[in-house]
Design a protein that fits this description.
12 strands; five-stranded antiparallel beta sheet; 514 residues; 53% helix; five-stranded mixed beta sheet; rod-shaped; alpha+beta
Length: 514
């Protein structure tokens, strides 16, 4: 699950970076294109209008100077109309309006000029400060209106009261700037497409090393400590790849060192256990002889003989458990799986140790599976032995198959139970819990008889105590079958240990798996 999550996260990361890079490039290109378009449109429009304004002002001044020399002031309506017509002749299609006090003459009798010459422009021209212009919208179309006062030619620049206005149509200029804007807009699309293509190329260049680094990281997380990334260039990605390789080298070196130390520790435990078996065999023989003759010895000597026998047996079980744990750590354990009736296996395990009268059972019949019968016996012996030794009656063993693919074996007691910190560590090797759950007696030794499956996994040292490896061995055997063991507190008091195993049916070929 973790590997899949890492892989999916890496894919999302690469995909997200690619999308963000492309979107960033496109946005930058789009903003640049829009900005360039706006600036080009503004500058082009300003240039066109400025040129038109300057031309209109200069043309009006020249025509007024040329025609106004022959005009008698004050003019009448006829002479004023003739003046307006002559000024218009040199200005092309522009409309000329001449005003003198209450008289007004228009070069085009059909032109509507009232809506295009504003009061503000008239007031500015009437002030006599030279030519004035104003752009106006009339009936949805743009116009440029230029006005100028006519002055006397005597040198003192006095106004004569005659005002001339020329109206210039700006629709052609508007169309020219609109055409320019359309052409720039049309050029934005290929710019954005080109930016997207460049973004894809850049994303491939940037993300290719990231993708390789992600693949190497997944391989490293999967256990391939030899995974490395090729370092190319001297940029930040190359520094990242170099750092990854250095980290992988350090991790590989640390792993090799830890594996070597672990192997040495396993060999040490196995060697020590093996070396202890020979003297323990001799000690067991001597202790057995002493126990057999204990009734003929004085009380103190008899007690010492029984104590030596019990402690020698406990030491023998410890050595056997250490050898079993070392085989688990070395991966040398193999299942000898056969078709097994689990209910019969539980009953046989209890009967072998004389626990039948001390334990109540609720066993579902006909629960058959392919398991290693000896290792299931070890699990049952450890769970039931601990319940008898550390709990309180009644001790109940329940075998059930709640689902179609799993089987559960519960061992419950009515003792003081286990505190939360003990439940979390009860399967740790050599873990010793509080003495409140210790119920071994000097006279009887470990209750439940001998054998590999009777080791205590908690309880504080003393006469008759187990090796502290029993529950760890039980859990390892459960895992070997693909199952687990859980511990919980019963609502009515006491502890309950639950073995959960996958229910592999007899028709499945499971024999010989490791």
């Amino acid at each position: 699950m973790k590997r899949g999550a890492v892989r999916r996260g890496s894919r999302r990361l690469v995909g997200g970076l690619r999308v963000r890079l492309v979107v960033t490039f496109v946005l930058v290109a789009l903003v640049s294109a829009v900005t360039a378009t706006a600036l080009a449109y503004r500058d082009a429009r300003t240039a066109v209008l400025q040129r038109t304004q300057n031309t209109a002002v200069n043309d009006l001044r020249e025509r007024v100077a040329a025609v106004g020399a022959g005009l008698d002031l004050p003019p009448d309506q006829r002479s004023l109309s003739r003046f307006a017509a002559k000024v218009s002749e040199g200005l092309g299609a522009r409309v000329v309006v001449a005003r003198h006090q209450d008289l007004t003459a228009v070069s085009d009798a059909y032109a509507d000029t009232e809506g295009r010459i504003t009061a503000e422009l008239r007031a500015a021209v009437r002030s006599g400060d030279g030519a004035r212009f104003q752009r106006v919208q009339w009936r949805g179309d743009p116009y440029l209106v230029v006005g100028t006062p006519v002055t006397y030619a005597d040198g003192d620049r006095r106004t004569s009261g005659l005002e001339v206005f020329v109206i210039t149509d700006l629709r052609a200029e508007r169309d020219d700037t609109a055409a320019l804007l359309d052409s720039v807009r049309a050029g934005t699309v290929p710019v954005v497409v080109l930016a997207a293509l460049l973004a894809l190329l850049a994303a491939g260049t940037v993300l290719r090393p990231v993708r390789k680094l992600g693949r190497a990281t997944r391989e490293l997380a999967a256990g391939d400590l030899g995974s490395r990334v090729a370092v190319r260039g001297h940029d930040e990605l190359a520094d990242l790849a170099r750092t990854f390789n250095e980290t992988a080298d350090a991790l590989q070196a640390s792993d090799a060192e830890l594996r070597a130390q672990e192997a040495k520790a396993r060999r040490f435990v196995a060697d020590v256990s093996h070396e202890l078996r020979t003297p323990l065999t001799a000690m067991t023989m001597v202790a057995t002889v002493l126990e057999e003759d204990a009734d003929q010895l004085p009380p103190d000597a008899a007690h010492a003989a029984r104590t030596v026998g019990a402690e020698t047996a406990r030491l023998s079980r410890l050595v056997e458990d250490l050898m079993e744990i070392s085989r688990f750590d070395a991966g040398a354990i193999r299942l000898d799986a056969t078709v097994t009736d689990l209910a019969d296996t539980v009953r046989a395990s209890l009967a072998l140790r004389g626990w039948t009268d001390r334990v109540s059972v609720e066993l579902r019949e006909d629960v058959r599976a392919v398991v290693d019968r000896r290792r299931i016996d070890v699990i049952v012996a450890n769970l039931v032995g601990n319940a008898l030794r550390h709990g309180a009656p009644p001790v109940t063993v329940t075998l059930a198959a709640p689902g179609g693919d799993r089987v559960t074996l519960e061992v419950a007691d009515r003792g003081p139970g286990l505190p939360p910190e003990a439940r979390e560590r009860v399967f740790d090797r050599f873990y010793k819990a509080d003495t409140a759950r210790t119920r071994s007696t000097p006279e009887g030794g470990d209750r439940g008889g001998g054998g590999l499956g009777e080791n205590e996994s908690f309880g504080q040292g003393g006469f008759g105590q187990g090796s502290g490896l029993g529950m760890a061995i039980a859990l390892e055997n459960a895992r070997l079958h693909g199952g687990t063991i859980e511990v919980a507190e019963r609502p009515e008091g006491g502890a309950v240990f639950t073995l959960r195993l996958p229910l592999r049916h007899p028709e499945e070929e499971e024999a010989g798996d490791g």
